[in-house]
Amino acid sequence: MAAKRNFRLMAGGKNEKKKKAGRGKGRGIVVLAAAAALFALLLVAFFFVAARYQVKNITVEGNLHYTDEEITGMVLKDRLSYNSLYLSLRYQNREITDIPFIQTMTVKVLSPDTIRIMVYEKTVAGYVEYMGRYLYFDRDGIVVESSETRTRGVPQVTGIAFDHVVLYEPLPVEDDTVFQKILSITQMLSKYEISTDKIYFNESGEITLYFENVRVRLGTDAVEEKVMQLKYILPRLEGKSGVLRMENYTEERENISFQEDR
Description:
The chain has 262 residues and is of the alpha/beta class.
């Protein structure tokens, strides 16, 4: 009888182990099912966010030295950057700096699929060539950038003498009022939608503008009146080579002549 009781006890122990094993397997299946459901939910959420917040419309404002495509490439550098939710978190209360010719850039999410990039460029009046590089300076003559490539729309300035250059410091010229003259000229040209290749100052401070093969001598006085007339004269000189003499032009005496190169 004792042996039978022992057998029953042992048999009961095996059944208990089987029950525990079964419960363990059941819990494992529940955990796996919950993990699979969570993964599926995360996957659905990921695709929803990727589709809902995909950047499709991009507006770039304030850029002159860089194209819209170049500015966009500076902000949207990888696939993740095309998610507006990510951009709103990354650029919230943050500006983009350390880009040549740009003071700062901001990114604003206007809607889940639309962003606006605002570009605030450094004020560049012109550039000089020095030791194989293009040195760009602002209205105060401070060198703001040094580059191996020339930027479209910025005139070269020649005739001003200096013997060294330090980045973020003024060009060491004898008469620093020349920078205000340069800025004034570039603003006038922009006002009348004229783009010059080069601005030259001789020893007397007389100004000559270069337009491909045409040189325009403006002298020193009544510069804006002369620039205003250029808007109408330059189209007639297209394809020609020579010197347009405007030194003695005034509103009372329209003394203008063109000496064609031989």
